[in-house]
UniProtKB/TrEMBL annotation:
The gene is PNO1. Residues 60-72 have a biased composition (Basic and acidic residues). Belongs to the PNO1 family. It is found in: Nucleus, Nucleolus. It comes from Coemansia guatemalensis. Residues 1-73 are annotated as: Disordered. This is Pre-rRNA-processing protein PNO1. The keyword Nucleus applies. InterPro entries: KH-I_PNO1_first, KH_dom, KH_dom_type_1_sf, KH_PNO1_2nd, KRR1-like_KH1. One of its GO terms (cellular component) is nucleolus. Residues 1-12 have a biased composition (Polar residues). Keywords: Nucleus, RNA-binding.
């Protein structure tokens, strides 16, 4: 075979190979469509997996079905007799309005409060516990009831020794200055600052708003440090006039 014939046969073989490698336009369009569909399905799957779950609002009944809230408040010995007398005033608002369950355990001398299926507000048990605790500290049932009706009331407690270290007769005189003759000084501070104050030996409990408690504590601290009541009355008069002008 001559060189010309060999070259011609080699060109024919290359043309046949090129025909076998060539891909038609229909095959290209089909492959592109399949790739696009696969990409869109994978993107949908990724989007579905990355979406945040949508949880509905949690109701009080659903929360109580999982676990019940429970509170215990210890009753001091000197408040047992008033508790028997005012039990109906304490029992009624907690059961009728807050939809809670309450009982007095005479063995442990503790008041027990818990939620039930009828409880509507999860925070009701904390309000009830604060109400009962305020009564056990010495506040009247009517004054303690304000903790259930208003959200901006607080209870603050401190001792005379937290302000100044006093013992013996000095401590007794400081407590006497706080009370005043027939409770005049204590009532003046309460009316001027719109708070309620309980003097339990060397412990002092104040019930009111945050700002009013601060004013009452400043007046009480000044009396403990030895300021004369007349000076405290003058300062309280100024504070009372400012509070009236503010409102």
């Amino acid at each position: 075979m001559s060189a010309v014939e060999q070259q011609a046969s080699s060109h024919n073989a290359m043309d046949e190979d090129e025909d076998e490698v060539m891909i038609s336009t229909d095959q290209i369009l089909a492959t592109t469509a399949n790739t696009t569909a696969g990409a869109s399905s994978s993107s949908d799957a990724n989007n579905g997996s990355s979406e945040k779950p949508d949880f509905g609002p949690l109701s009080a009944k659903d929360e109580h079905s999982k676990r019940g809230e429970f509170r215990r408040i210890r009753v001091p010995p000197h408040r047992l007799t008033p508790l028997k007398r005012d039990w109906l005033k304490i029992y009624s608002p907690i059961v009728e309005h807050l939809k809670l369950q309450i009982r007095m355990n005479p063995k442990t001398r503790m008041i027990e409060i818990r939620t039930c299926d009828e409880t509507e507000d999860i925070g009701s048990i904390q309000k009830a516990a604060d109400f009962v605790r305020a009564y056990c500290l010495g506040f009247s049932a009517e004054d303690s009831l304000a903790l259930l009706r208003m959200d901006d009331l607080f209870l603050d407690s401190f001792e005379v020794k937290d302000v100044k270290t006093l013992t013996g007769d000095h401590l007794a005189r400081a407590i006497g200055r706080l009370a005043g003759k027939d409770g005049k000084t204590k009532y003046t501070i309460e009316n001027a600052t719109k708070t309620r104050i309980v003097l339990a030996d060397s412990k002092i409990h104040v019930l009111g708003t945050f700002q009013n408690i601060k004013i009452a504590k400043n007046a009480i601290s000044s009396l403990i440090m030895g300021s004369p009541p007349g000076k405290i009355y003058a300062n309280l008069k100024i504070v009372a006039s400012r509070m009236k002008g503010r409102f």
